[in-house]
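Students often ask why inverse folding is considered easier than folding. One informal answer: many sequences map to the same fold, so there is more than one right answer. In these notes we will look at a single instance of the problem. The structure comes first.
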């Protein structure tokens, strides 16, 4: 099998890839077979001079009569063509253990950890504090419509984790062979085939819900058990070894191996672990707002005159700002084309936002978080100081929004002018239960407000209209990452002072998104399997 990288195709060209590739290699039509898309991205940087291109990485084979070595020799000047070697990973053998491993949390880290354990012949017990997917969806929808919050089942807690009510983004900065495992598993569970190769793959909230349910059933079919509405209340240690866990019902379960995929919003669980002496540390996170624009504004900025082409997806963006002299930075995060801003609270009397898109991304509004990094120097070096800061500003947002889970919102023009009340909006704010026009400066740290003011003007140079007076900002965004880290050993992936405790995923402070959290869960399970191999 051969592979070609950086294979450019004009975005309007619908010629089969087999034919285009044969032409590129000066081979007769029909010489190329078994073309598989490994990666597909858009290069729109040159649209003012040249057409927009799709940029492919392709694996392909040659028909009989065409030798790979001779093709490579003939086209040695094409440096992007090479022989592709398979790199398969295998599940390790196991030995019998006295106690079943326990997994806490059914976000991507917990689910993929449990699935990996099942595939190796172990039968993990999985506990989830929130509801199953169907019940959770009803609870979340009720909150968005009425403001009635269930603290144990919401956008943060429940089957699928926080990523379920997002865009289902599968982009990641890590480079790990288990990424392919994650994507293949999602496809087997009903996700679109294209996620295997798109440069910025996503599943969408609507499709992801069924995918997660199928993944849960796969775990059950392989011998695992999944229990909802079951919160971990306490862990017990003896001589720095895990011995037992206690559930919120009071039930005590002997436990030697516990995989904790608790998510970045399990504040009560962080507090419990801290009380029990598990080694943790404060870590940086980010604070900001959600900003909304008409999707067409972003499409025009990214694609130029081709913005309305049926051959192009709705456009996204990634923006960064850094003022080293003032030590202020800001960046866009979790950009949701054609999506909505959603209420993501998990505690009473606090307001926090997130972004969400369905698979089609056809809502007509582009939204993104604009985030400003904060560090322990800003909020304190105590393990739980970051959580205190999050709670403080989320409560201010609750009060500013009207104390009914409506969110405070402000136009960019008003924010930059330090006034509020303008209702000449570019879009109808999508946040439910609703918004209250207010001054966001009152629910943001001064450092965050200052960085946002500078960044908005900078981003407007990158995307004309980004800082338009009527663009809408909704506050606050606080849950992009965990505010603390459960410290673990790099070699074993176990807690450095609690043998048998495996902190995994975003909640442990070792991942940043669906794919990286899933990979972290897989790798922790594989470390456990390696430790117990026969």
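Output (designed amino acids):
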């Amino acid at each position: 099998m051969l592979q070609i990288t950086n294979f450019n195709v004009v975005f309007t060209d619908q010629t089969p890839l087999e034919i285009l590739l044969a032409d590129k290699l000066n081979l007769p039509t029909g010489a190329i077979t078994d073309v598989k898309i490994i990666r597909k991205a858009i290069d729109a940087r040159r649209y003012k001079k040249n057409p927009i291109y799709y940029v492919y990485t392709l694996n392909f084979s040659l028909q009989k009569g065409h030798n790979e070595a001779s093709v490579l020799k003939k086209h040695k000047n094409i440096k992007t063509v090479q022989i592709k070697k398979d790199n398969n990973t295998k599940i390790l053998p196991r030995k019998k253990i006295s106690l079943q491993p326990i997994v806490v949390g059914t976000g991507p880290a917990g689910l993929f950890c449990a699935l990996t354990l099942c595939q190796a012949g172990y039968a993990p017990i999985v506990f989830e504090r929130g509801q199953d997917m169907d019940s959770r969806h009803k609870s979340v929808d009720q909150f968005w419509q009425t403001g009635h919050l269930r603290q144990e089942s919401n956008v943060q807690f429940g089957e699928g984790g926080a990523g379920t009510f997002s865009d289902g983004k599968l982009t990641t900065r890590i480079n790990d062979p288990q990424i392919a495992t994650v994507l293949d598993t999602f496809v087997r569970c009903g996700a679109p085939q294209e996620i295997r190769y798109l440069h910025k793959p996503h599943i969408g909230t609507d499709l992801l819900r069924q995918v997660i349910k199928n993944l849960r059933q796969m775990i059950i079919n392989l011998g695992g058990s999944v229990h909802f509405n079951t919160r971990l209340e306490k862990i017990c240690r003896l001589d720095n070894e895990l011995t037992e866990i206690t559930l919120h019902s009071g039930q005590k379960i002997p436990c030697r191996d516990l995989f904790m995929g608790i998510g970045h919003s399990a504040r009560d669980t962080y507090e419990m672990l801290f009380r029990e002496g598990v080694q943790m540390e404060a870590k940086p996170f980010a604070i900001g707002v959600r900003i909304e624009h008409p999707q067409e504004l972003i499409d025009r900025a990214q694609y130029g005159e081709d913005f309305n082409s049926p051959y192009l997806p709705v456009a996204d963006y990634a923006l960064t700002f850094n003022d080293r002299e003032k030590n202020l930075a800001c960046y866009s995060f979790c950009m949701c084309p054609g999506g909505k801003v959603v209420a993501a609270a998990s505690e009473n009397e606090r307001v926090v936002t997130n972004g969400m898109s369905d698979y089609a991304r056809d809502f007509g509004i582009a939204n993104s978080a604009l985030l400003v990094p904060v560090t322990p120097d800003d909020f304190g070096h105590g393990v739980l100081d970051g959580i205190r800061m999050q709670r403080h500003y989320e409560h201010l947002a609750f009060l500013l929004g009207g104390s009914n889970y409506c969110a405070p919102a402000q136009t960019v023009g008003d924010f930059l002018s330090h006034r509020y009340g303008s209702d000449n909006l570019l879009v109808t704010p999508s946040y439910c239960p609703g918004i209250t026009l207010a001054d966001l400066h009152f629910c943001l740290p001064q450092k965050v407000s200052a960085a946002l003011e500078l960044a908005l003007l900078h981003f407007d140079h990158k995307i004309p209209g980004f800082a338009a007076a009527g663009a809408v900002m909704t506050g606050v965004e606080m849950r992009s990452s965990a505010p603390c880290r459960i410290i673990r050993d790099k070699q074993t992936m176990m807690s450095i002072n609690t043998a048998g405790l495996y902190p995994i995923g975003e909640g442990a402070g070792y991942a940043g998104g669906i794919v990286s959290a899933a990979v972290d869960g897989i790798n922790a399970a594989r470390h456990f399997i390696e430790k117990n191999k026969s």
